[in-house]
Design goal:
Blueprint lengths: L3 H22 L1 E2 L4 E2 L4 H12 L3 H17 L4 H29 L9 H27 L8 H25 L12 H17 L10 H10 L3 H21 L9 H44 L7 E2 H17 L4 E8 L2 H8 L1 H17 L6 E6 L2 E7 L3 H18 L1 E3 L2 E3 L3 E7 L7 H17 L5 E3 L4
Parallel strand pairs: 3-5, 9-10
Antiparallel strand pairs: 1-2, 4-6, 4-9, 5-6, 7-8
Helix pairs in contact: 1-2, 1-3, 2-4, 2-6, 3-4, 4-5, 5-6, 6-9, 6-10, 7-8, 7-9, 8-9, 8-10, 9-10, 12-13
């Protein structure tokens, strides 16, 4: 990675600022323990991007951030315990990155990945770090031994929420710039609704805190992925900051119960929102793959036109519709004259390019409602809905003249080419679409027998 020293320095600075912000705005007693530890997610990203090189930078940043809150009368002991905490923080980041590479080498892409992500990347490293931190605090006399259990639980939750908030946000912003639309009317309305709900919930209307999740889910289902994860980050930080000052809707039971309720609330809305985003993306990917499979199954690989298998049901539907509502339609069969000569003279690769050029001319010379088909070899078909005998003759003869005048542009060269066309229009006695297609095929054969480069149509009905 280019400019690695700058990345290390920038990541360490961001880690330090996030830690100091958490201690200042989201702090519990002692003041260096926070409700939300965003540096856990930042450290994971640093280690994913830079590997072991990020370890000393994270340790230094953690030491600088923790030292003011861990100073006691004994400076050497304060430095020692702060160093232990810093090494635990850096070790947790390295551990989480290693678990991510082992269990989710492709990153967090599917909703099913959340189980492994939460277990191996979030909870396991957070628990290991939390055990070291609580043991360090007890040994240093910062907390009493009886407080170890509740504190450990809160440390694990704080680190886990930090990773769940920061890492997916980092991943989603790695996508192409073309998809980085963040501010839309939907995001503005949803963001304002969440802000009002949070503020009112801390002003006595506690139940409104639960309106945050529906707003996030609405944006997730509306394909506003970056907006969801960005607003989720801001919402959780805001809720934690307000609650550290005024518990509001979480002010029930003992202080420990209140803080546990607050942190599980943050964990729950984060996990549910993230799962919805991932599931919707996964569903969209599957839908696109299914549509692509259907397209490939119904279209010719060489020219991109419909194939016979896909076309015949369309023709049957158009035939039944036209007969039911007394409408008109026409069907043209055409092929490239002397196509074998092109293959023999220029080779099959040029022959394939010639067929692609034919498809290009057909697209340019027909309407959007017309259905273009490659039946096989150099034989093509055009279905002209709502087109009677006179209009179909004009359209097809114009197409024939274009081929005769322009030929085919292949590999920067112009190859002379003509087409023969058999054209049939719906007649009152056409009981089935097969009858119309068979008549068009006979007319095409007549056009070729008559010398090629001509249009033969059935008599006007």
């Amino acid at each position: 990675m280019k400019h690695r020293p700058l990345w290390l320095l920038g990541g360490a600075l961001l880690y330090y600022l996030a830690a100091r912000l958490g201690m200042a705005a989201l702090s519990l007693q002692p003041s260096n323990i926070t409700l939300l530890w965003l540096p856990s997610g930042i450290g994971l990203i640093q280690c994913v991007a830079l590997g072991w090189r990020a370890f000393p930078a994270i340790a230094v940043a953690s030491f600088a951030a923790n030292l003011p809150g861990m100073l006691t009368d004994s400076l050497p002991l304060s430095i020692l315990h702060t160093a232990v905490a810093a090494l635990a923080d850096a070790g947790a980041a390295i551990f989480a990155a290693a678990m991510l590479r082992r269990h989710l080498p492709a990153g967090l892409n599917r909703s099913a990945d959340l189980v492994d992500f939460c277990l191996f990347v979030c909870l396991l490293p957070s628990a290991a770090c939390g055990i070291l931190l609580t043991g360090n605090l007890v040994t240093g006399g910062y907390i009493a031994a009886r407080e170890t259990g509740p504190l450990l639980c809160m440390l694990i939750l704080a680190d886990t929420i930090g990773i769940l908030l920061v890492y997916p946000l980092y991943m989603i912003w790695q996508d192409s710039w073309e998809r980085r639309l963040l501010i839309t009317p939907k995001t503005i309305v949803a963001g304002l609704a969440m802000l009002v709900s949070i503020l009112l919930a801390h002003c006595g209307y506690a139940g409104l805190i639960h309106m945050v999740l529906p707003c996030l889910l609405y944006l997730a289902l509306a394909k506003q992925e970056r907006a969801v994860l960005t607003l989720l980050f801001l919402v959780v930080v805001l809720v934690m900051a307000l609650s550290s000052w005024n518990l509001g809707p979480f002010g029930v039971g003992t202080i420990r119960e209140a803080y546990l309720m607050l942190m599980t609330y943050g964990f729950s809305i984060t996990l549910v929102s993230l799962a919805t985003v991932l599931y919707r993306r996964e569903l969209e990917t599957l839908t696109e793959a299914h549509d692509s499979w259907q397209y490939q199954a119904g279209h010719d690989n060489l020219t991109g036109l419909c194939n016979r298998r896909f076309f015949l049901p369309l023709l049957e539907d158009e035939h039944n519709r036209a007969r039911r509502y007394h409408r008109e339609y026409s069907l043209a069969l055409l092929d490239l004259d002397h196509f074998k000569r092109i293959n023999d003279k220029h080779g099959h690769q040029v022959g394939d390019q010639a067929l692609q050029a034919v498809a290009g001319i057909l697209r340019q010379g027909t309407r959007e409602v017309d259905v273009l088909v490659r039946l096989g070899g150099d034989e093509f078909c055009i279905l002209l809905p709502e087109t009677g005998h006179p209009g179909a003759i004009l359209a097809m003869d114009r197409l024939r003249l274009r081929f005769a005048q322009e030929g085919l542009a292949v590999d920067g060269k112009r190859i002379p080419a003509t087409i023969s066309i058999g054209l049939a229009s719906l007649a009152p006695d056409d009981e089935t679409s097969e009858q119309l297609m068979a008549r068009a095929d006979r007319l095409l054969y007549q056009a070729k027998r008559a010398g090629r480069n001509r249009l033969v149509a059935d008599a006007a009905s």
